[in-house]
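User: Okay, second chain of the day. Same drill as before: sequence in, structure tokens out.
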Amino acid sequence: MFDSNGKAYASVAETKEGTVLVADAGFTCIESGAELTVQSDPVNGLYVSCGDGKHFLDGQCDDHTAPDAFYVGLYPKPAA
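Assistant: Same drill. Structure tokens below.
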């Protein structure tokens, strides 16, 4: 899935603990452009740290049942 500028969101299949994501401007608890390292909670799954503590990624998932699901508002950090 792509944003309105054609930029691909982070894939659920490729995002795991340790992945670095970049946030867009749509969050109230995360600064636009922030680089966020994905962490794992044994009960609630993947999350990134935010101004409110933990922002769980399942709330960003476009379709939990789709094999090609994406995290809306979060992008994979470009390779250096």
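DSSP finds no helices and eight strands in the chain.

User: Thanks, on to the next one.
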